[in-house]
Each structure stands twice: as C-alpha cells, then as structure tokens.
Design goal:
four-stranded antiparallel β-sheet; Neuraminidase; 596 residues
Amino acid sequence: MDSYSLLYSSSHRTGLLAGFQRLRSQGNMCDVVLEAGGVSFPCHRALLASSSEYFWAVFGETTAERLAGCVSLPALTPEGLDAILDFLYSGWLSVSPLTLPVVLEAARYLQVETAVSICERFMIDGLSVENCCCYANLAEHHVLSDALEAANQTIAMEMGTLLQESRDDLLKLNMQSLMAVLDADEIPGVKEVELIKLALDWLDDNGPLPLLKSNLLLSRLRFGLVAPSELPNLSHAHKAMATPLIRGQLTRALEYHRLGSAQPIRQSKQSTLRASPNRVLLVGGGSSPDWPEQKMVMFDPRGRKFSPLCSSIPLQLRNHCVCSVGGFLFVIGGEEVKEGEEDGKKSVTMVTSNQVWRYDPRFECWVAVESMLERRAQFTCCVVEDAIYAIGGRHTQPDANTHTSVASVEFYDMATGAWRREANMPRPLYGHASAVLDNNIYVSGGNQGGSNHGDNRDDHRESSKEVLFWDLKGRAWEKRAPMSIARFSHRLAVAHGHIYALLGMYEPFCDIERYDPQSDDWTRLRPLLTGSFNYGMVSAPSGNLLVFGGRRWSEGQEVIVKSVLEYDTKKDHWREICQLPRPLTGTECTLLPLPD
C-alpha cells in the first residue's frame, strides 16, 4: 500500500468564502433571493443551507421552498438579515449597540448559533449602567443565560445610580431579572425601603399579576432591614403586600427586631445586609497611643480604599477588644480615656471598663448590652459557637494607679443576654493573644503580671512563650507546644487550618511563626523587614493577613506608621498594598458587612 500525506490549507477556506462573497456582490450564480422589509438579497442556496439550520430545513427535499426562487422572511428587518448574510459569507459580524436587537433577532431566527454567541459576548463585554436593563431584557428574550446573569449583576451593583437616573428602565425590566436583582446579596448604596418602593411601582406598571407571581417577587425583599417603626405601614402600602405570605414575612421581621440580645444569632437572609461581607472595620485608635479617637473606618480590600463611618464609638477607648457576630459589631472593655480639669489644668485619667457596646450597621445605632462581670484591658476576646469569650487581662483600681492582672474567663450568652463565668486560666495573663480553630480556643504569650503600681516598662522581661488550649467539650485548659519566641501584645490569626503568631511589643526580631495543631509544633516563617507593634490585624477570607498601621522604632524615636501590609500565608510573602489616610496606632479590626 502506497504511503500518503494529508495536508491542510487554511487559506483555501478563507479564499472559498471570499469567492462566494465576490459572486454575491456581483450577483453571479445566485439561485435564490431572500426578501425582508421590501429589500431583496440574492444568495446561494448551497452556502445558506450549509451555514444555517433554518435554511437547511427550508431547502430540504420535502419543503415547498426547496425550489422557490424567492423566500420571504417577514419576521426580520433588512438590517438584521444583511448583517447575518455578511457573516455567513465572510465570517465577520457587524454589530453595534443600536443594531444589536435586530442582528440578534436575525441570528436567533435563522439559527446561526455562532453569530448568537458573538452577540452574547458583545453584550457581556459592553455592559454599562446605561444599557444593563436593555441588555437584560434582550438576554431574557433570547435565552442567553450568561449575558442575563452578567446584566443582572450589573443592575444590582449599579442600582443606586439606576434609581436616580434611569428609573423608567428599571420599571420596564423583565420579571426574571428583577427577581434575580432582589435576590442579590450585594446592592451597594441602596436602602431596602427603596427596593420595596421599586418592586411595588413595577407591579403597578406591569400588573395586574397573579398572586403567585407577585408573592414570588415580593418575598425576595428583606423586611428585616426595614426599621420596626416603618414595618406596620408596609402591609397597607399595596394590595400585593396584604397576602398571607407577605404579611407573615412582615410579622417575622417585627419579631426579629424584638429579639434584643439574641438578634446576632437569629440572623436570616431577610435580615442580612446587602453588602460585601469582606470589608474590614477599623475601630478606634489614633495618631497618639495615649489619646485614642472614637472614629471607625471601613477598608474595602477590593478597591483598597478607606471610608470613614458617620457613626463613632460611644467612648474613647484603648486596649479594648472588638468582634463581630451575625453582622453586629461588639466593642468590649478597654481603658476609657477621660479628660478632666484639676487645679485649673487639664488632666487625663484612664479607667478600666467592663462596658460592652453593640453596633448595628443596618440602622447605624449603638446599644449598651450587659456589662462584663469584670473590668478588663489588655485582654483578648474571641467567638465560639455564638458566644463571646473574654479572657484574662488586667484592670486599674479606680481609686489608685494600681494594675491587677486576672486569670478569669467569662462568656457572653447571646440567647440570654448575660455574661457567665468559665473556668479560669492556670495563671493571670495580660497582653496575650487568642485564636479559634476547630471551635477550640488557643491563648499564647502575654505577661503573668500581678499587682503593681504604674506602668512598669520592665514587664516585658516576663513575657511568655506558653500556649494554652481550651477544649470546649472537656471545659479544661491544657498546655500545647510553646512558641519559639516570648511574645507580649502580639496577634494570633487563623488561616488554612494553621495558627499564625505575629509581632509583639518587645521582640528583638521581626519573626513570625506558624502552629500546626496536628503535629503540635511551631515553624518560623519569613520575618518582616521592619518590626511594628500596637497595630490592627485581620485574617481575610482568602487566608491572607492584613496589618494596619502601628508603631515602630526609627533612629531611637517611636514613629506611628500609615502602612497596610499583606502577608500571603501560602507563599510566605509580605508586601505593602496601600497606606492609611493618616498614621494610626491602637486600632482593633474585624470583618463586618457594611453598607456603602
């Protein structure tokens, strides 16, 4: 058998189409005429049938049109048909935002799926606040799932602008898109009452709808985000709001607002903010370690931008703790800085606090909840199974400058709104750190202290390497492998099933280390080039650690820094990602969904 080679020429295929296009433009060898809107298009039957499922069926052996000299296409416009014919003859599709509807209609009608896909990609790539509603309707009409999803996401993210500038476009939106938008977990800068008003106006413009459909639409609204004073009026705002299903949701929203301390652990989609859950809230701190401010600042890791919150902490605090539960912020204990006057001169006093404040970002309001059983500063707090644990710390006697460190542990039971005692640590600790892994608490470092007068700068000599483990089931403290470095006023963070120990106040080196709970050992990691302390830190959902501001020594002087550092836990790599608006030290950080 003779051997042979099979060779391919890409230029032949291009030349073949070019030849057909030349014949078409000259009107040579055309054997069928397509007609749309009074305009005739001479074509070649064989090319049409080989390029379109529609024409393959039309020119089949059993159809009346198989030998017809002219085929009328009344459903298409001349512009749409011309664009698709150019595509079939050349491979190039001419489309613009103005011609997209007719071109897409022709591509879908003639079953030219490649042209349909090109139109869908054109829509996705060109989405903007000006066309997202129009493109959503086009995508829904032509069953373009990817374009529809992208358009719906754009509508949700641009809803604030659309409500102000293009409300009519929203009122013409197809129901599937409106339901998808009202299902969105993130709609920046829009209050829920505005979405409720939009949904009711849409029902007026597109109704009347069967109760089943109106219920499907309205049930996607989050009535738990509406102030309790406004909820009773909603049931009378529209007849669609009076159905048993919607009235039941309004009732549950009112019940949620009456839960008091249990609100954070009784969250549902109906009461969850439509905001990114990955925003970092910086609570307190200031440009001086001795004079903290009451400001709160939001950091968006996506855009690396800082935005100040209108609301402020009720007290001036330092050495406090913060945590978030169920979309609420808790600010716990610390030293309250009070400004007074003595002998005609201004004076500043520090009083250790046991107060606990809860912040609700939905309504930007603060509530004083049950105070801790003990006053605490330089302590640590963490959240385990819907309870907030306050561990160790020290307090200052109100009548004397005497500091007493404590071993006590207490937890806040949100179901009852009360603090309860837990088993004490083996010894008093302050300046320690904690982390939660697999519902167990790890406590590291710190200083045992005791009772002393004033701020003893030599306390760091007693900083500990010790690591304690709290088994929630056994309810007992156990020892784990100690850190390789004694640390005080440091941070612990959890990422990818490991615990990371970051810099503290008096460490001579900038080393960090990682704890493996399976092997019960610590591993040294890449150190920071420049050490810092009294910074804010949070573990991002990606597993990377973010470090905000702090203090460091430079040429024998203490400097407040503006840097925001990111530690990649997988690559063991540090980098500066941006800077704070101003130098900041003593801030406490937590992840919290926050409205724009």
